[in-house]
Design the sequence.
């Protein structure tokens, strides 16, 4: 009963989240733990300090008479041998412990680091006679777990006569049982610590590391549910303290899955690709890694756009939310492409595997070119807005030439920036187009959402109007041959018709104009009334420009009639 009370208090201390915020309860549990340990120690002391004469006790469910303490210890040892008959046999006091000393913990850490980094070297590249070398000798060398086979040093199943064969097979069975989903390593630790094994936690990380390196292609390991492609010593340090944070999963590559794997390998695995040292599940990662990299490198626009087919959208979502490589390749992507999940037990079906590969490649191509299609639509808008008369491929040259005449003549900062980029001949066509689109939209197209394209169309229309007004102003000045300050005035009439006229301001008339403007604005009806002043300006522009426009049209009509009479 006292042992149960102690275990219950330890469970509460370890798992009760309420203790993290309740200091009083935390101290209460701590004091009760101390009392429970003391009471259990007293009980054990009384139980194992037998009298010099005969003592009666229960052994394996039977009342037994034990004559002395030595006999009691002998029978207890025999009982432990029967209870833990499949236990681990290691001749190393430093590692075969429940809790390692600081020296033992350091030696184990150095040994695991050597296992991960130097598996292809004899003795894992270690020299001398330090405690880590002693651990290597008893756990890996004497058992045959690390040996040379066919000229290659690596990790292999232990020899049959070693004392770790049963434990190796038990861990291996646990790993294989995780084919349907992840299994927590905390379950493995608990299983190995219970009868009939009774393995002390000190040796488990070393054996587990050897097994994971042996099963590098078919067992994945996860921390807090996230796949770990490269296993490092820091993971094992954390695993020793918190095995519940780690889990494993067994990847079965049989039947339909093996066919799908081979189909995807032909299009996704680079022939020049080399697997880095320490990378786990190389065969699976050789296919999954390019997909993970592909989606990470996509522009923000592509990751958020809805301008894709329904299948391509589902594939994109699967790539963005995937956490496990096998689920991505055999469940999420097949479902996104309109196929069912491809489980390990599915029979071979070459036609289905090829059809899935073809559809997936089509969707990936559509996703990959989504941004290019956006730029193509932007180029078409530029082509139409600028009224380019040549082929669309000549858009850059047409805009460059027209913009070159406006360099140094723009006051508007946006238009000035646009003109400067338009005449840039040192960048590629794609970079040139991206630069113009970014200036118009005030946002790089890679970071667009779908709605930004409509805003780009509106902004482009406004910019092109100002660009063309500046072009017309420059042309009018050159035609008149005047060197005066020029201003282009535009009046939009109620019917939507626009009247444009270039007006020159001669320096010798500036004082006259300033005086007339001052007199007009100081008139009693207009003075200190901005609204009426602007109305007066509008009416003045309308009167002068409309009259000028009418006279101009009258002159054009007379000219045409005279030409007709002459003809």
Sequence:
């Amino acid at each position: 009963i006292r042992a149960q009370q102690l275990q219950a208090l330890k469970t509460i201390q370890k798992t009760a989240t309420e203790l993290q915020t309740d200091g009083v309860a935390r101290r209460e549990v701590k004091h009760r733990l101390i009392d429970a340990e003391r009471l259990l120690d007293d009980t054990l002391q009384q139980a194992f300090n037998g009298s010099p004469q005969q003592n009666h006790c229960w052994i394996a469910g039977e009342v037994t008479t034990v004559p002395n303490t030595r006999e009691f210890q002998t029978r207890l040892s025999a009982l432990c041998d029967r209870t833990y008959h499949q236990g681990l046999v290691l001749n190393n006091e430093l590692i075969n412990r429940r809790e390692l000393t600081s020296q033992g913990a350091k030696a184990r850490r150095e040994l695991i680091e050597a296992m991960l980094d130097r598996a292809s070297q004899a003795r894992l590249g270690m020299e001398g006679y330090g405690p880590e070398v002693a651990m290597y000798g008893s756990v890996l060398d004497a058992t045959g777990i690390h040996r040379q086979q066919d000229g290659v040093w690596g990790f292999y199943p232990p020899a049959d006569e070693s004392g770790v064969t049963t434990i190796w097979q038990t861990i291996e069975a646990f790993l294989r049982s995780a084919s349907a989903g992840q299994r927590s390593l905390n379950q493995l630790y608990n299983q190995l610590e219970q009868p009939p094994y009774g393995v002390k936690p000190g040796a488990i990380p070393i054996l587990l590391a050897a097994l994971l390196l042996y099963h590098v292609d078919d067992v994945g390991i996860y921390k807090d549910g996230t796949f770990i492609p490269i296993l490092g010593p820091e993971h094992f340090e954390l695993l020793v303290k918190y095995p519940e944070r780690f889990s494993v999963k067994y990847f079965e590559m049989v039947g339909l899955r093996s066919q799908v794997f081979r189909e995807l390998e032909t299009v996704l695995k680079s022939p020049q690709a080399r697997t880095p040292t320490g990378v786990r599940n190389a065969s699976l990662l050789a296919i999954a890694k390019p997909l993970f990299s592909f989606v990470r490198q996509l522009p923000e626009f592509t990751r958020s756009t809805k301008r894709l087919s329904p299948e391509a959208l589902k594939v994109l979502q699967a790539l963005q939310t995937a956490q496990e490589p096998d689920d991505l390749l055999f469940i999420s992507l097949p479902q996104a492409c309109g196929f069912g999940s491809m489980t390990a037990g599915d029979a071979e079906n070459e036609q289905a595997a090829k059809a899935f590969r073809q559809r997936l490649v089509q969707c990936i191509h559509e996703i990959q070119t989504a941004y290019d299609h956006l730029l193509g639509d932007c180029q078409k808008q530029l082509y139409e807005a600028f009224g380019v008369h040549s082929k669309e491929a000549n858009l850059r040259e047409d805009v460059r030439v027209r913009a070159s005449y406006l360099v140094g003549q723009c006051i508007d900062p946006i238009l000035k920036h646009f003109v400067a980029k338009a005449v840039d001949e040192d960048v590629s066509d794609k970079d040139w187009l991206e630069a113009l689109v970014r200036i118009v939209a005030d946002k790089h197209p890679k970071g667009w959402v779908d709605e930004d394209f409509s805003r780009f169309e509106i902004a482009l229309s406004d910019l092109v109007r100002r660009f063309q007004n500046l072009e017309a102003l420059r042309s009018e000045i050159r035609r008149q041959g005047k060197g005066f300050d020029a201003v282009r005035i535009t009046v939009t009439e109620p019917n939507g018709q626009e009247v444009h006229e270039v007006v020159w301001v001669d320096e010798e008339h500036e004082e006259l104009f300033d005086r007339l403007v001052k007199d007009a604005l100081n008139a009693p009806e207009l003075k200190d009334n901005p609204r009426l002043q602007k109305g007066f300006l509008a009416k003045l522009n309308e009167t002068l420009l409309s009259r000028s426009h009418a006279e101009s049209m009258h002159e054009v009509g007379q000219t045409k009639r005279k030409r007709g009479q002459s003809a």
